[in-house]
């Protein structure tokens, strides 16, 4: 970029190295030998990290625990000094890195607000004007006069977030703080962040949930063992990171021989690998739902899988497109007549928002395939709003409700697997005239009419 004034943050070959010693004696010996003998173990938290973010940019950083995400944010916020490399930050930075970070626990909330604002370069007049807004947003009310050490974690994060967004930041840095607190306050924070983004604030958000960066950011960085594994659009980075997480979940528990590549393998060897992967998936599924499984047990749900456009298992699907979900099952004993499978989709609160019953479509279990894995596939037009959802499946016999047309009643529960799987509906990849809030999107029209 030719105009450097348009750059908010630029990192060039940033490294952060920590040295640890087995004992203080080893540290002393290294000092006495003037570094000629090394006793320290070197840990490279950041390894040659480079990227640039323009003013008004929205950057999401994803990665597993220990990938260097939080270390990178602390370097950006000025909390840590890099071991080498150069960093340029243009603008007032407000960082929300930890619960109550920077607060004096012995002082009341009001005094901490003043100190926080002063540290961010605000004048006395600006602090006086911002304090009522901070108190109102945090909803602390009379508790603002009490010492911060008496606050719950939820109260501390409310005060911390309110301070961070009302110090008139030019660059806002948030480290997964929105995952704390109830759904109401999370939604309130999201609305406030979006209003800041609309005002042109540069935003950096660290999370381990890929869907979050697609919702709030336009650029993404995937950190892995201190290095930038991938950088690009938030949709591309989020999808790649989520695919890797899903791949590792699928291969969990497999031997090195099975989980390695099988290029050049015979068809029989490839089939054996595929069966091992399926068995690993089924074992993981069984462990997840064992405590909640109910039913008489003549047949069992083995697994639930969401299928992408490429026919491969996925945990993320596009918004407002057809979605396929496969329910794997096995029949071990004779079943009641005309048993079917139900598939339920629930929101984050556990409330079921979508329900399918194969019997309502005249489709029953394949009773000819005893003691062998079988599969039933559901396909539907997915109008769920972007977000995370849970999947549960059951096997049973049903009858039509004589009073409520279009509803099936349960005669007998053979198996019910609650909490079997989870998936995300991602936001559209391009801007569109939609308002995606709530659980489901319903197309509508609106007209402004004059009153006679």
- Which CATH first-tier class of the largest domain would you pick? Alpha Beta
CATH homology-level superfamily of the largest domain: P-loop containing nucleotide triphosphate hydrolases
Please summarize the sheet with the most strands.
6 strands, mixed
- The proportion of residues forming helix, as a percent range, comes to 25-40%
What's the arrangement of strands in the largest beta sheet?
Answer: 5-6-7-3-8-9
The stretches of 5 or more residues where confidence is low (pLDDT under 50) are: 252-265, 269-277
The structural domain count equals: 2
How much strand content do the residues show? 25-35%
According to DSSP, the number of beta strands is 18
Give the integer mean of the pLDDT values. 82
Structural class: alpha/beta
Number of helices: 10
Please characterize this protein's 3D structure.
- The protein is of the alpha/beta class and 452 residues long.
- It has two domains: 245 residues, P-loop containing nucleotide triphosphate hydrolases (Rossmann fold, 3-Layer(aba) Sandwich), CATH 3.40.50.300; 133 residues, abc- transporter (atp binding component) like domain (Coagulation Factor XIII, Chain A, domain 1).
- Helix content is 28%, strand content 32%.
- It has ten helices and 18 strands.
- Strands 5-6-7-3-8-9 form a six-stranded mixed sheet, with helices on both faces. The protein has a five-stranded mixed sheet with strand order 12-18-17-14-15.
- Helix 3 packs across helix 4, helix 4 crosses helix 5 and helix 7 packs antiparallel against helix 8.
């Amino acid at each position: 970029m030719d105009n450097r004034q348009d750059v908010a943050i630029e990192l060039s070959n940033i490294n952060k190295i920590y040295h640890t010693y087995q004992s203080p004696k080893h540290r002393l010996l290294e000092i006495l030998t003037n570094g000629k003998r090394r006793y320290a173990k070197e840990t490279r938290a950041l390894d040659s990290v480079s990227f640039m973010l323009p003013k008004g940019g929205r950057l999401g950083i994803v990665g597993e625990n220990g990938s260097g995400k939080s270390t990178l944010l602390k370097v950006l916020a000025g909390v840590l000094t890099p071991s080498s490399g150069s960093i340029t930050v243009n603008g007032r930075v407000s960082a929300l890195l930890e619960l109550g970070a920077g607060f004096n626990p012995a002082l009341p909330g009001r005094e901490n607000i003043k100190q926080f604002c002063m540290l961010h370069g605000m004048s006395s007049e600006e602090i006086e004007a911002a304090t009522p807004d901070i108190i109102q947003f945090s909803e602390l009310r009379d508790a603002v006069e009490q010492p911060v050490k008496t606050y719950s974690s939820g109260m501390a994060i409310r005060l911390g977030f309110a301070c961070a967004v009302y110090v008139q930041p030019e660059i806002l840095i948030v480290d997964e703080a929105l995952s704390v607190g109830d759904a109401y306050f999370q939604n309130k924070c999201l609305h406030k962040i979006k209003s800041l983004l609309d005002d042109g604030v540069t935003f950096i958000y660290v999370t381990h949930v890929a869907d979050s960066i697609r919702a709030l950011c336009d650029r993404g960085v995937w950190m892995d063992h201190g290095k930038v594994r991938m950088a690009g659009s938030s949709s591309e980075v989020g999808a790649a990171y989520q695919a890797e997480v899903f791949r590792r979940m699928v291969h969990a528990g497999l031997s090195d021989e099975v989980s390695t590549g099988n290029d050049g393998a015979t068809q029989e060897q490839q089939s054996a690998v595929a069966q091992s992967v399926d068995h690993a998936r089924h074992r993981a599924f069984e462990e997840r739902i064992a405590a909640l499984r109910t039913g008489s047990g003549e047949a069992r749900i083995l697994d639930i899988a969401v299928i992408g456009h490429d026919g491969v298992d996925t945990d993320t699907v596009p918004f407002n497109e057809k979605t396929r979900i496969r329910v794997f099952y096995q029949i071990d004993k004779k079943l009641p007549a005309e048993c079917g499978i139900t598939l339920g989709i629930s929101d984050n609160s556990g409330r079921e928002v979508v329900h399918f019953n194969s019997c309502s479509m005249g489709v029953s279990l394949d009773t000819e395939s005893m003691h062998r894995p079988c599969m039933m596939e559901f396909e539907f037009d997915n109008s769920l709003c972007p977000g995370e959802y849970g999947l549960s499946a059951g096997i049973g016999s049903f009858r039509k409700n004589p009073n409520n047309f279009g509803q099936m009643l349960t005669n007998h529960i053979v198996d019910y697997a609650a909490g079997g799987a989870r998936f995300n509906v991602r936001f559209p990849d391009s801007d569109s005239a939609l308002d995606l809030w709530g659980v489901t999107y319903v197309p509508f029209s609106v007209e402004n009419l004059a009153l006679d």
